[in-house]
Design a protein that fits this description.
Layout: H1 2-20, H2 25-51
Helix pairs in contact: 1-2
Keywords: Membrane, Transmembrane, Transmembrane helix
Transmembrane segments: 25-44
Amino acid sequence: MTLFLALIIVAIILGLIGAVADGLLFLLFIGIAVLVADLLYMALRTRRSARHRPLR
């Protein structure tokens, strides 16, 4: 969970810098890519952990 939150913060910071600074638009795209990768990672992780829980 810590990795997920850290990557979300990094994506937001890169997106803000890329949107505000002139000539650094590529940082916005990198931030978007990090955000998408992070959301996919969390989706796969929660789906995998839900499958391995023992039934009671």
